[in-house]
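queue> pop job 88
queue> type: inverse folding (structure -> sequence)
queue> payload:
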């Protein structure tokens, strides 16, 4: 309950008429986190309480009624004032959701046209002279994400190809430039491999040193014990060689 209360203090994403698919995905996640999505997904009926209801029946009845009211309130709070005037007369959260989906997402034919427009927009994109590679790639990825939200797909290989082609005119790249780029990449990979090998050898060398130190101490300890035992034996022999008084 504490987690739900703290999450409910976060304002829902506001829909202003643009990027409906992104808003719908975020809003569904928001409502699901508050345990209100069921009231939007299904316009269930709330049965009347029987005569002499139990406490459990009264509690369940109140929870269902409260969820429907909260879901409707969340959707009202999650749209701009312009869009609110179009949905304020609708009675349930499901009616509101379905109305927005029909108006802004459209049917399969409309979604197909939107995908075609986005794909065409993607193909027409070119990197600006003042634009960094990150800015350009973010712009392409944004369009690709919108295509995926409409139920279609944009292959990553095409995105990579688009970035490579537009970041440098491939027709002007000489053979030497291409070979230099490949050699630089190969050198970076080789350096990483050498660093890995050197690190492994250093660890092994350190282990060998520690082992030799341990072995030397063990051998020294054994020699010390052997000498002590030898001295004791010799002392005993000397004592035994003296004649009795």
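queue> result:
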């Amino acid at each position: 309950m504490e987690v739900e209360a703290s999450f409910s203090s976060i304002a829902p994403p506001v829909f202003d008429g643009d990027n409906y698919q992104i808003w719908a995905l975020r809003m569904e996640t928001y409502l699901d986190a508050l345990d209100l999505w069921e009231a939007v997904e299904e316009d269930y009926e709330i049965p009347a309480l029987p005569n002499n209801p139990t406490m459990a029946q009264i509690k369940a009845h109140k929870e269902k009624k409260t969820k429907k009211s909260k879901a409707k309130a969340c959707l009202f709070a999650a749209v701009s004032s312009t869009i609110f005037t179009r949905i304020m007369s609708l009675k349930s959260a499901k009616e509101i959701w379905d109305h927005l989906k029909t108006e802004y997402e459209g049917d399969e034919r409309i979604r197909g046209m939107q995908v075609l427009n986005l794909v065409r927009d993607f193909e027409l994109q070119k990197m600006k002279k003042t634009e960094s590679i990150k800015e350009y790639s973010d712009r392409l990825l944004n369009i690709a994400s919108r295509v995926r939200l409409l139920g279609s797909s944009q292959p990553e290989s095409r995105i990579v190809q688009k970035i490579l082609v537009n970041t440098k005119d491939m027709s002007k790249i000489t053979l030497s430039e291409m070979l230099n780029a490949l050699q630089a990449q190969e050198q970076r990979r080789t350096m990483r491999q050498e660093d890995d090998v050197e690190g492994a050898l250093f660890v092994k060398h350190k282990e060998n040193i520690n082992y030799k130190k341990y072995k030397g101490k063990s051998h020294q300890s054994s020699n010390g014990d052997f000498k002590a035992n030898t001295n004791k034996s010799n002392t005993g022999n000397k004592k035994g060689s003296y004649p009795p008084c």
